[in-house]
Amino acid sequence: MTQNTEIVNTQQLSFEDFKNEVLNDYRIARISRECSLLGRREVLTGKAKFGIFGDGKEIPQLAMAKAFQNGDFRSGYYRDQTFMMAIGELTPQQFFAGLYAHTDIDVEPMSAGRQMGGHFATHSLDENGNWKNLTAQKNSSSDISPTAGQMPRLLGLAQASKIYRNVEGLENHTNFSINGNEVAWGTIGNASTSEGLFFETINAAGVLQVPMIMNVWDDEYGISVHARHQTTKESISEILKGFQRENESNGYEIFVVNGWDYVQLIDTYNKASQIAREQHIPILIHVKELTQPQGHSTSGSHERYKSKERLQWEQEFDCIAQMRKWILEFELENEDGETLRFIDSEEDLINIEKEAKKEVSKAKRDAWSAYTNEIKAEVAEAISLLETIAQKSNNGSFITKYKNDLAAIAEPIRKDILVAARKTLRYLRDEDFAEKTALKNFIKASTDKAAVKYSAHLLSETELATENIAAEAPTYASEKNIVDARIIMRDNFDAILAKHPEVLIFGEDAGYIGDVNQGLEGLQEKFGELRVSDTGIREATILGQGIGMAMRGLRPIAEIQYLDYLLYALQIMSDDLATLRYRTFGKQKAPLIIRTRGHRLEGIWHSGSPMGGIINNVRGIHVLVPRNMTKAAGFYNTLLEGDDPALVVECLNGYRLKEELPTNLGDFKTPIGVVETIKEGNDITIVSYGSTLRIVEEAAKDLAQVGIDVEIVDAQSLLPFDLNHDTVKSVAKTNRLLVVDEDVPGGASAYLLQEIVENQNGYKHLDSKPQTLTAKAHRPAYGTDGDYFSKPSAEDIFEKVYEIMNEANPAKFKSLY
Questions:
Q1: Which UniProt keywords apply (predicted)?
Q2: Mean pLDDT throughout 261-279?
């Protein structure tokens, strides 16, 4: 078989080099396949919890790896193990360490056991949390399981190259880009292209014209569901033909190639890489006729839903089998008339296959030993301690049983150790000897270690953690300069853009008109369309742009026009951005700032304040709720000095209110996680945030007229809330607490109540029941009356506080009703 052999020789390889490369590719493919086969067995025997593997996709991933260069980024899904092996970022032992959930990041570098196997990442940060030189390595953004969830981030990874190539002032950012020559490579299964996130990203990349190569691995099924139920015409490339660029119009290059054709795959990927890299044109590569030899995952068997004919076809057209056949049949006559072959006989391939089996089998054993030996050492320590305790305790027989049960577990986990230790401690509650203290210390040490292994790195633990950024107060001119509050926002963004060339602001209406509230007025004209830009109405990929660019050293500010619209992007915020640092054990970060506005809006669709839903879905992102534009501007300044992602919710009804213009724009900083007492009082503490504070202040004036002195605390920051525990100091003074919130009952108000009463031990100081005052359970009806009767009003607040004081002193505060 000699067809098209000249294609793979485009880099002027000698035949000997070419042969070695082909045989090495075959070796990698066999190693990857053996990992899949043995990995499934490990799950089915109980050593691993779940397995999802890349078998059947090996050959196109080898071709992709050949075109993948230093500085490039992958944003893929859980089938790409061969690719990761081919670029040198995954060994078979690391593959099994991931399967076993080994918690050592040096042993399992993808996630330190936090993600199931098949979720891949490289390290963008060093041991101190500082950026590495991303242009000197091949990069993989950390995978997530939600199907198509990798797509929005892919868009931003690609857009970063466009920014680095075209924006002045970034020439020195050489750790992140070399003149924008990097390509972002996406991978997805054919069935997952049915997701809206796929189509939204494809459209956005076509509009933006960024160097993105989207690879669709097509094996005709989505778990058990055939492509005819997934995709119109059963072909993603067919239905996306309208995206094909023509003449000078923007659009895509679209390639379709069979996944078992090694030669054509390499040709296709070389072409695609060159076009995307040089011209910044997005590309779709539809890789067809792939197989999935073991079915979707270890949860089921594909024999249940595939016909005998399909199974027979898959066996014949397995991509490795086809490559093997091509190697065996390959012959090429050189200029001297000699016949060149890759191998002398089939025995050469058999030897490669045997060696692959041996290598993978050894890697599996070594990974298992490394994983279990660490735990067994902890088991031995626990057993020794329990044995000594059993000899001294009056309940020794019970403790001996725990010890023996632990020792009998053939493959123990850390849970087994702590269960035995903690149950033993119950039997020692009436006893006191040195070994009991040793047991308590053992439990505490084990729990502390577990906190690092399983809970560390939700947010930055470096010097750049935003809570470490010192506050800096606004300064003002000797003569007051009172302006519309939007001017403060606009001029502060002006200062930010001038100070930080890596900052970009983008969103719906953010560019040409300077956002709907004129907080960016004139800034696109001043800084250019790439730095202050409009986007389509597509919130999920606006977030994705921000995530991807932030992962490549830029400092994007992604605008979501209104708080309600954030729900379109909440899945991306929750599953991707909020978990990124955590799921990589602190080895990747995306310090994206999300800007939106809300509170006190009118009507069902523009009035939501779903803060409870947001804060409970985005742990790992700061949620900041400034009461005015000066506070908001200070938050942006603070965030840009740190490296945590954040959501800033500006007060929509505050842009036209008057505030004094600071003189240190771009420099003053609002501290994160710090509350502010904006009115002192003695009778009751009211905690609120955002626009509702103005209503609380109005009610406080009315309450003062009847002899009730209210202390008002502005939360300012919901995640984190009150790191200094200042709120409880207020409660200790007033002995009463009311949380006022325009979210639904049980939303952010319940969260704040738990923080104050439980976490800050505020209950100790209460003389009255702590209460909340929230909006109704529904969204408001349209109009001012809809707002008045749905959300807390000044009258509601007055009467709620008066009712609390009536209970405390009914003689002084006689019942109103």
A1: Oxidoreductase, Pyruvate, Thiamine pyrophosphate
A2: 97
Q: Are 626 and 693 in contact (CB under 8 A)?
A: no
- Measured in whole angstroms, the distance separating CA 324 from the mean position of its chain's CA atoms is 39
pLDDT for 607: 66
Residue 479's alpha-carbon distances to 495, 656, 659, 668, in angstroms, are 21, 21, 13, 19
Q: Is 812 helix (H, G, I), strand (E, B) or coil?
A: coil
Residue 452 has pLDDT above 90, yes or no: yes
DSSP 51: -
Q: Rounded distance, CA 106 to CA 109, Å? A: 5
By residue count, the chain amounts to 817
Quick check: 478 pLDDT over 70?
A: yes
> Of all helices (H) and strands (E), which one includes residue 81?
helix 81-86
> How confident is the model over 704-760, as pLDDT tens digits?
999 999 999 999 999 999 999 999 999 999 999 999 999 999 999 999 999 999 999
Give CA–CA dist 701/696, Å, rounded.
Answer: 9
The pLDDT, as a whole number, for residue 4 is 36
Sequence-ordered list of residues with C-beta below 8 angstroms from that of 785, at least 6 positions apart, any chain: none
Cα–Cα nearest to 664, from 491, 816, 424: 491
The two three-digit tokens of residue 93, written as one number:
């032992």
Measure the CA–CA gap between 501 and 425, rounded to whole angstroms: 58
For residue 763, pLDDT beyond 60 = yes
H or E stretch at 37: helix 15-44
| Banded pLDDT at 336 (limits 50, 70, 90) | confident
Instruction: For residue 395, give both structure tokens.
Output: 């309940």
Instruction: Indicate the SS3 state at residue 78.
Output: coil
**Residues known to be catalytic:** 606
- The structure's pTM equals 0.95
Integer Cα distance of 703 and 736 in angstroms: 15
